[in-house]
Each structure stands twice: as structure tokens, then as C-alpha cells.
UniProtKB/TrEMBL annotation:
Source species of the chain: Hymenobacter metallicola
Coiled-coil regions listed in the entry: 229-259, 362-396
Protein name: Flotillin family protein
A Gene Ontology cellular-component term: plasma membrane
Gene3D superfamilies in alphabetical order: Band 7 domain (3.30.479.30)
Subcellular location: Endomembrane system
Keywords of the record: Coiled coil
Length: 722
């Protein structure tokens, strides 16, 4: 028990000691370098530069900054220092002050200005400004201005001596003259005795120095100029000698070069003459050799072409003969086959003949319907073809004017190109014509055989299908005729448009269209006589084409020299004629359209026509436009609407003359006054007599309407208002 109590006591003592140590450590304040601690409160005021105990509530601690401080004293202008020679000097001096590191001086400073203000720059400046300025003035009066520059160290030591080192706790360590310069004349007061004397000395000294400086400068300039002139003269003389020597040397060199060039040119011309002679001789020999070679090559090529053509023709003939032989064998086999089939067909015809009697009535009705449909279809296709042809013609006519120049050049080019193409076509046409004739003979033989076989079959069927065949033939013929007529109309319209353009292609298209129509017509006939008719048509077609190509080639081949020029002149005349006809047709269409417009607009009008071409139409359209403009003006203007109602309304009490006469009576116009007045002049006088703005505005709008109607310049008497 006693041990535990002892342990507790020891613990308490340890805690107490630790608390005391912590309190003591907290109350002990340390100082840093450049600071002093000042303690006030219980006991005397204490100063410490290392550390001191501060008991809360009993003591208070202040920190004083004792580091070195800079005080700047500057005097300039009218406040500058007055020197011994009465010259003013602008000066700036830095004083280095600190609190003396002694207990007594720190305590003295703390008691006099306070610990916190002891290191304040503003407080220090207010404290020492007067004393330091007075010291500067006192010391400056003992030195001339020039001596201030030459004896700066002495000037500084005198300042330190006058101020002293003991400054009521502060110590002046040193001072530095940062700026020292003469006060400008503009800052001096001429009414001040000292400044006036200083100004006099400054002007005297500076003037003397300026005179001496200017004299030295002028002497320098004269010496330099003299040296420059002498040097320039020497340089010019040397340059003259140099130029003379250079020109002399150039002249000699030029003479030497000219002689050498002349000699060289002479040798070059002689050598060139020899070379040209050799080159010309060589070129002549080369050209002769080339011409001989080309001649031999041309002869060889022509021989080869002739041999190839003969071989090609021989091969083509052999192939054609083989093809004809094959076709002949096939045709004979087909004929044998048809003969075998014919026996079966004859048996079938017996059955068909019995059924024909029953179907005859039905077929007749159906054929009537087909006839009607064919006619309607033909009429419809004819109308469509005519419409399309008309549209194409109109489009071609519109494009004619723009493309006339281009087509003129194209026609000339095609005419020249056709001559070249004709040569090639002629050669091809010879082989093609022979092949066509051979094929036509084969086709004719085949068609003849087939036609004969079919003729025999048809003869066997004649009793049963004679009426039916005739009806179908008539229908097909009518249909083909309608189609041919439509195509022919279309081709004719297209050919007419192309002919207006002056193109050779137009004639080709027209011939093609007519050929198509002929083919369709021939097709209708061929339904009855199919075999021989097709062979004949094909043979004739190929023969005509071959003859046409050959004739075209011969004709184009003959177009050389004057004949060719004459043919081209004829083509140009035809083209110009087509262009003019197209323009006339365009004018005709325009006139027709204008006539339709005028006819619809003026059905009931009685009009005297004056003017030619489009003048009458333009005048009519202009009059209609003016009328519409006046209607729109009256419709959009309230005032003109009022005037219209007043003068033209039947509710106004009469017609236009009666209303206008009443309006004239309102202003008191007599017949004599209106005798020599126009409508515009009468309205102008009414405007002058009008008593209010509304009436004036009404008369103004009425005058505008009269002008628009074209009666403003008419005499007022023609209205018979009086």
C-alpha cells in the first residue's frame, strides 16, 4: 500500500515537473538577429538581445527592429543646396541609420518613439529630415560647386561630423552621395540675390566655354575641309590619268580584236561554204535514194493489194457458191418434206371444210369488228403521226435559225467527205452487189419453191378459206396502207424540216421513211403472194442500193474542179433557200398565232387596220395594255374611284357629259372660256379655283386619268359641255 502511494506521488511529481517545464518553455521568448526584446510590466523595464521570460498578465513584450535603415534626403530646384560661390546644386544623399545595440539606447528609443515606430521608414524620415537637411545646407555653403565634385569624400565626412554619431539612441553609420548636379537655369529665381549671382556666373562660364568650343570646332572644320579638297584634287588627277590609260588600252584591244574577228569570220565563211556544198550534195543523193525506195515500196504494195483483192474475191465467190449449194439442197429437202405433209393436209382440209360452214358467219362478224378497229387504229396512228411530225417540224424550224451557220459549214464538210467516202463505197459496192445478186438468186429460188408449195396448199384450201383469205388480205392491206400513210406523213414532215436545214441527211431520212412505207405496203401485198414477191422486192432493193451507191460514187468522183465548186454552190443556194423558207414559215406561224389572239379578243370589234407586219399587232397589244393599266389605276385609287363613280355611274344622275357639265358649272366656266382650252388646261384652271385640298387632289387624279386615256390634249369644246 505504501509502495503504491509512493508510486502515485512520484507520478504526480513527474507530471508537475513536466507542466512546470512546459510553462517555463512557453513563457521564455527568444530574439532573432537584428531585433531587441523590450519587456514592461511588473518590475523595471528590461531589454534583451537574446531571450527573456514573459509571464502572461504580469508582463508585456515588444519587439524592436534594430537593423540598418536607409533615409533618403533629396534637394533639387529652388530647394537645392547653395554653394560657397552662390551656385545651386541638386543633391541626393542616402543616410544609413540604426538603433544603437545597447540597453540604454534601446530603452531610450522605446520610451521616446515606441518600439514599433523605431523601424518605420516614414517615422525615421520625419524624425531626421530637418536635421539632415540642415547639415547638408551647412556643409554645402563651405564648398564651391566645382569642389563638391572634386572633394566628395571630404563633403561626406563634413556631413558626418556636423550631424554626429549620437542621435538619441540612433547611430549614423555612413552616408552616400547618390546624385549631385547643377540646378538648371529654368529652376532658378532671378529675383533672388543668390540665384541672380549664380545665374550670372553660370552664363559667364558657359558662354566662355561655348566660344572656345566653337573656335576649336571651326578650326577643325577648316582643317578637315582643306585636307578634303587637296585629297579630291589628287584623286581627280589620278582618275584622269587612269581613264586616259584605260581608253588607250581599250582602243588598242578593240583594233586587235577587230582584225582577229575579221580574219576568223573569213575563215568561217570559207569553211561554211565548203560544208554547205557537201551537205546539199549529200541531201540530193539521199532524196534520190528515198524516192527510189518509196517508188519500189508503192509498186510492191499495189501488187500485193491487187493480189489480195483477187484472192478475196475468189474466196468470197467460193463461199457464196457453197452457201448457195447448201441452201439449194436444204430447199429441195424442204420441198420433199412439204410434199409429204401436203397429203396429210389434204385429209385435214376435208374436216376443215365441214367446220368452215359453221364458223363462216362468226368469222364474218369478227372481220367486220376487225375492220372497224383497223380503221380506228389507222386514223388514230395517222393523227399521232401527223402531230408528231408537226412538232418535229416546229422544233426543227426553231432550231433552224440558230443552227444555220453551223449546218452550212457541216454541209460543206459532208459534201467534201462524201467524195472520199464514195470512193470506198464504190469498191465495197462492187463486191456487195455481186454477193447480193447471188444471195437474191438463192432467196428467189427458195422463195419460189416455198411459194409454189404454198400455192398448191392454198389451192387445195381455196374452197374453204377463199372468203376468209380475202377478208384477212383486205384488213391487212387497209392496216398496212394506214401505217404507210402515217409513216409517209411523218417522213414527209421530217424531210421537210431537214430540207429547211439544207442537210444531205434530210434527204436520206425522207428516202428512208418512204422506203419504210413502201416496205409496209409491199408486206401487205406479200401476205397474198409471199414467196415470189419477197424475192423480187429483195432483189430490186439490193440492185437499187448497189446502183445508187455506184451512181453516187461516180457522181462524187466527177465533182472536181469547176463542177465540184458548182455543186457546192448549188448546195449553198438550196440551204439558203431552206433557211429563208423556214423564216417565212416562222413569220407565218407567228402571224397566225397573233391572228388567233386578236380574233379571240376582238370578235365583235370594228377596227380599221393600219400598218404592216407586226405593227398592227403591237399597236393593238399596246392599246389593250394601256386599257388594263388605266383599269388597275382606277381600281387601286380611292380618289379615282370616287371620280369614276361621280362621272360614270348611272346613279350619279346622267351620263359622262351631264356629270362633267355639272362639275364645270360648279366652277362657273363659260363656253367662251372653254373654247380654246384643252381638257388638261381646263382641269388646271379648275385646280386653281378649287378652295380645299380634297378638291385639288380630286382634280389632280382626274388629270392623270385623262392623260392615261389619251384625251388630255383634246379640245374641251368637243365634249359640248356648254
Amino acid at each position: 500500500m505504501i509502495g503504491q502511494l509512493s508510486l502515485a506521488v512520484l507520478v504526480l511529481l513527474g507530471v508537475f515537473l513536466l507542466g512546470i517545464i512546459a510553462v517555463v518553455a512557453r513563457m521564455y521568448k527568444k530574439a532573432v538577429q537584428g531585433e531587441a526584446l523590450v519587456r514592461t510590466g511588473m518590475g523595471d523595464t528590461k531589454v534583451s538581445f537574446t531571450g527573456i521570460f514573459i509571464v502572461p498578465v504580469l508582463h508585456k513584450m515588444e519587439v524592436m527592429d534594430i537593423k540598418l535603415k536607409t533615409i533618403i534626403i533629396q534637394r533639387a530646384g529652388s530647394e537645392g543646396l547653395v554653394c560657397k560661390d552662390n551656385l545651386r546644386a541638386d543633391v541626393k544623399v542616402n543616410f544609413f541609420v540604426r538603433v544603437n545595440k545597447t540597453h540604454e539606447d534601446v530603452l531610450n528609443v522605446a520610451q521616446s518613439i515606441g518600439a514599433h515606430r523605431a523601424s518605420d521608414p516614414a517615422a525615421l524620415e520625419n524624425l531626421f529630415d530637418a536635421k539632415f537637411s540642415e547639415a547638408l545646407k551647412t556643409v554645402g555653403k563651405h564648398f564651391d560647386f566645382i569642389e563638391l565634385y572634386n572633394s566628395r569624400e571630404q563633403f561626406k565626412q563634413e556631413i558626418l561630423r556636423i550631424i554626429g554619431t549620437d542621435l538619441n539612441g540612433y547611430v549614423l553609420d555612413d552616408c552616400a552621395i547618390d546624385y549631385l548636379e547643377q540646378t538648371p537655369l529654368t529652376a532658378l529665381n532671378q529675383d533672388n540675390i543668390l540665384d541672380a549671382e549664380g545665374i550670372k556666373k553660370i552664363i559667364a562660364l558657359t558662354s566662355e566655354q561655348k566660344i572656345q568650343a566653337n573656335s576649336i570646332q571651326r578650326e577643325q572644320q577648316k582643317t578637315i575641309k582643306k585636307q578634303d579638297v587637296e585629297a579630291q584634287e589628287t584623286i581627280l588627277q589620278l582618275e584622269k590619268q587612269l581613264v586616259e590609260n584605260q581608253e588607250k588600252q581599250k582602243r588598242e584591244i578593240a583594233n586587235i580584236k577587230a582584225r582577229e574577228l575579221a580574219e576568223t569570220e573569213k575563215v568561217l565563211q570559207e569553211e561554211r561554204l565548203k560544208g554547205e556544198k557537201a551537205r546539199i550534195a549529200t541531201e540530193e543523193e539521199v532524196r534520190i535514194a528515198e524516192q527510189n525506195r518509196d517508188r519500189q515500196v508503192l509498186v510492191a504494195e499495189r501488187n500485193k493489194q491487187r493480189t489480195d483483192a483477187v484472192e478475196t474475191e475468189r474466196v468470197a465467190q467460193a463461199k457464196a457458191l457453197e452457201a448457195n449449194e447448201r441452201e439449194r439442197i436444204v430447199a429441195l429437202a424442204q420441198i420433199e418434206k412439204e410434199k409429204a405433209l401436203e397429203e396429210e393436209r389434204k385429209n385435214i382440209q376435208t374436216i376443215i371444210r365441214e367446220r368452215v360452214v359453221v364458223e363462216k358467219a362468226t368469222v364474218q362478224e369478227e372481220e367486220k369488228i376487225k375492220d372497224t378497229r383497223a380503221q380506228a387504229q389507222a386514223e388514230r396512228e395517222k393523227l399521232v403521226a401527223l402531230t408528231a411530225a408537226k412538232q418535229q417540224a416546229e422544233a426543227a424550224t426553231v432550231a433552224l435559225v440558230g443552227n444555220a451557220d453551223m449546218e452550212r459549214q457541216a454541209a460543206e464538210f459532208r459534201a467534201k467527205q462524201a467524195l472520199i467516202d464514195a470512193e470506198a463505197e464504190k469498191a465495197a459496192a462492187e463486191f456487195k452487189g455481186q454477193a447480193i445478186r447471188t444471195l437474191a438468186e438463192a432467196e428467189a429460188s427458195k422463195a419460189t419453191a416455198v411459194g409454189l408449195a404454198e400455192a398448191q396448199v392454198m389451192q387445195a384450201k381455196a374452197t374453204a378459206r377463199q372468203k376468209e383469205g380475202e377478208t384477212q388480205a383486205n384488213v391487212l392491206q387497209l392496216t398496212a396502207a394506214a401505217e404507210a400513210q402515217a409513216i409517209q406523213a411523218k417522213a414527209g414532215a421530217q424531210a421537210e424540216a431537214d430540207e429547211k436545214l439544207g442537210l444531205v441527211a434530210a434527204k436520206i431520212n425522207r428516202e428512208k421513211g418512204l422506203a419504210d412505207a413502201d416496205i409496209i405496203q409491199a408486206k401487205a401485198d406479200a401476205d397474198q403472194k409471199k414467196g415470189l414477191a419477197e424475192a423480187a422486192v429483195s432483189e430490186q432493193k439490193f440492185a437499187v442500193e448497189a446502183k445508187g451507191i455506184e451512181a453516187k460514187a461516180d457522181a462524187m468522183k466527177k465533182l472536181d474542179g469547176v463542177g465540184k465548186d458548182h455543186e457546192e454552190f448549188k448546195l449553198r443556194l438550196d440551204k439558203d433557200k431552206s433557211v429563208e423558207l423556214a423564216q417565212i414559215n416562222i413569220q407565218k406561224d407567228i402571224a397566225a398565232s397573233q391572228a388567233e389572239v386578236i380574233g379571240e379578243a376582238l370578235k365583235a370589234a370594228k377596227i380599221d387596220i393600219v400598218g404592216g407586219e407586226t405593227m398592227f399587232f403591237d399597236q393593238i397589244i399596246g392599246s389593250i395594255t394601256k386599257g388594263k393599266m388605266v383599269d388597275r389605276t382606277v381600281h387601286n385609287s380611292e380618289v379615282l374611284g370616287t371620280v369614276k363613280d361621280a362621272f360614270f355611274s348611272q346613279d350619279g344622275g346622267g351620263d359622262f357629259k351631264t356629270n362633267l357639265r355639272r362639275f364645270v358649272d360648279q366652277f362657273g366656266f363659260s363656253a367662251e372660256e372653254m373654247k380654246n382650252l384643252s381638257v388638261s388646261a381646263l382641269l388646271l384652271k379648275m385646280m386653281h379655283k378649287a378652295g380645299d385640298d380634297t378638291t385639288r387632289n380630286t382634280i389632280t387624279e382626274l388629270a392623270s386619268t385623262a392623260t392615261a386615256l389619251g384625251i388630255g390634249d383634246k379640245p374641251a369644246k368637243m365634249l359640248e359641255l356648254k
